[in-house]
Design goal:
single chain, alpha/beta, Rossmann fold, Helicase, Ruva Protein, domain 3, 3 domains, five-stranded parallel β-sheet, 18 strands, 49% helix
């Protein structure tokens, strides 16, 4: 039930208003002055406050500012026996929903109250959606307890409250955009836009227009002015995915934005200023790209002030079970199926898969397995046929490509990944002495 607080030192008027408003289905509380009203505001959440301008211990116009600073979702309607323009203007500036005169405007109170309630309900829904969005994109929603992924999360948390440019590196499908969204969501820019663009998805001219915008008539088909994504992201964050694919001409333009906060739209001579936090990502080795002449070294230094490497899924084997169960809940619900379990054989198959597509590939496999399963458990029969073929091919390739020492090194590394670096536990699983494990780690230079 919506709650209304009436503040007025005239007992009869306050009681009458409370009765009228109560008959409309609202829960009404009364207060004769600012002091008692503040106590009631602290004790309960009120949707709307009806407040007299002249009170024994304060002024309603100033009281509005106090209420809105502490309870921004609460709307305040001011009532006055002697209205004047200056008070009305100041009341609205202080955040009042409206300012009306007692007596003359009594018939307006109930409709006004309902409109104020509509605004409150809308604000509450927006806040709820923002919270859901924040939860969805927070670091708490990144699944994984392995040492490798926790190290990446720890680094990302350290950079959230700064405006430093961030470079996310790692293979395709490791979750670089998820990390970029989490950094934005936990930064001081979270109330502003997060805009993402894949630099490999456009030709040079289209990418220029998408990023920086254009003026009408600047090229064939440019019938109207268009804002670029940098302008859309003003005061927020822009995520430049696959930045290693960006043409050299645009790299020069991006460097200018980073250094001056300015850029020129296509067909315009006057620069546009923006305040944007840049997060870039790549699956390429940018040092190799610099050596090959495909990427500017000065731009690299500007975008890589803070680098975060995201581990491949094969480097965090212990997270596969958590991720599989996480995706199972999502896709069993989405496909209206009651699949609650994953068999040990299914999990073992997942752990021995090469995962060239990383988390994106795992997500795809779980979704397809859910569709293929008719029971309540994912088992080996649930896995797509090509999954088994890829796993078998990977095992055969490893057997033919590695000598005994290399195979031993890879196996030790896998066991250490599985135990999250716990060497005592790894030695037990390998059935060797701890001193032997330390010697082999040193011999094979395992990090």
């Amino acid at each position: 039930m919506n709650k209304v607080l009436i503040i007025d030192d005239e007992d009869k008027l306050r009681t009458l208003l409370a009765r009228i408003i109560g008959l409309e289905g609202f829960l009404v509380t009364e207060a004769p002055d600012c002091k008692s009203a503040n106590k009631k505001l602290e004790a309960a959440d009120f949707d709307v406050v009806l407040c007299d301008v002249r009170l024994p211990d304060g002024n309603g116009v100033e009281f509005v500012k106090s209420v809105k600073s502490r309870f921004p979702l609460t709307e305040v309607i001011l009532l006055t026996a002697h209205g004047n323009i200056n008070d009305g203007v100041q009341a609205i500036k202080n955040g009042a929903f409206d300012y009306i005169t007692k007596g003359d405007d009594n018939n307006k109170i109930i409709p006004l109250l309902f409109r104020a309630m509509e605004k409150v309900e809308l604000a509450k829904r927006v806040k709820h959606l923002e919270k859901q969005l924040g939860d969805k994109h927070s670091f708490n929603n990144i699944v994984g307890t392995s040492k490798a992924i926790q190290k990446s999360i720890e680094l990302a948390r350290k950079v959230t409250e700064t405006d430093t440019t961030v470079l996310l590196t790692g293979e395709t499908g490791t979750g670089k955009e998820i990390f970029a969204q989490a950094i934005h969501q936990e930064s001081k820019r979270k109330q502003k836009s997060f805009v993402a663009i894949n630099c490999s998805a456009f030709s040079k001219d289209l990418l220029d227009s998408e990023m920086f915008g254009h003026k009408a008539g600047s090229f064939t088909g440019a019938h109207n002015d268009q804002k670029g994504l940098f302008e859309e992201a003003n005061n927020g964050t822009i995520f430049l995915d696959e930045i290693g694919e960006m043409p050299l001409d645009l790299q020069v333009k991006l460097l200018r934005v980073i250094e001056t906060g300015e850029f020129l739209k296509i067909g315009e001579s006057k620069p546009t200023k923006v305040n944007v936090r840049i997060i870039a990502a790549t699956n390429r080795d940018l040092q190799n790209e610099i050596n090959a002449g495909h990427f500017r070294q000065d731009l690299f230094y500007r975008i890589s002030v803070f680098q975060i490497h995201l581990p491949a899924l094969r480097e965090r084997i212990s997270d596969i079970e958590l991720l599989a169960n996480y995706f199972l809940k999502i896709y069993s619900t989405r496909n209206n199926k009651k699949i609650n379990h994953i068999s040990n054989d299914f999990l073992e198959s997942l752990k021995h898969h090469p995962w060239n597509g990383n988390i994106r590939e795992l997500k795809n496999i779980i979704e397809r397995s859910v569709i293929l399963t008719s029971g309540d458990t994912l088992d080996l029969d649930s896995l797509p046929q090509e999954f088994h073929q890829i796993t078998l091919h990977s095992k055969q390739s490893q057997l033919s490509a590695f000598d005994l020492a290399s195979a031993e090194k890879i196996h030790i590394q896998k066991v250490l990944n599985y135990t999250n670096g716990n060497k005592t536990r790894a030695a037990e699983l390998l059935n060797i002495a701890l001193t032997t494990l330390y010697r082999k780690i040193e011999e094979y230079k395992i990090s």
